[in-house]
């Protein structure tokens, strides 16, 4: 298992959102590879290193949608924070929901940040620029180990 810390795990079930987010990352010239999983079960399998993700790279950041099939983003976050080797992994919730109950629960479960998906592509690009500056450049990351 590689722990190179360069990949970004995008947990998103909406194909159009995946394409827009990838496009925004390209427009901002973020070179980090984006690994996409489409539901909560896949996210947990990936992070746990289960088949077919045994040779996965541990991500430096998780972008997590809340409204996912099979397991919700809240369930993924709750699972992640219970894993001694993964609990320090930064998780940015990136979702369409601005409901205070979703925001509060995400923070209660250990989210590092909560972002509401913007409506326009230009706004998404601005959000990705800020995300890049803070989470990928300025933020001092905790040691995350899977040993």
UniProtKB/TrEMBL annotation:
Gene3D superfamilies the record matches: 3.40.50.2300
Domain Response regulatory: 7-132
Pfam families, alphabetized: Response_reg
UniProt GO BP: phosphorelay signal transduction system
Modification sites for 4-aspartylphosphate: 65
PROSITE patterns: RESPONSE_REGULATORY (PS50110)
SMART domains: REC
Name of this chain's protein: Chemotaxis protein CheY
Keywords: Phosphoprotein
Organism the protein comes from: candidate division WOR_3 bacterium SM23_42
Transmembrane segments: none
Keyword Repressor: no
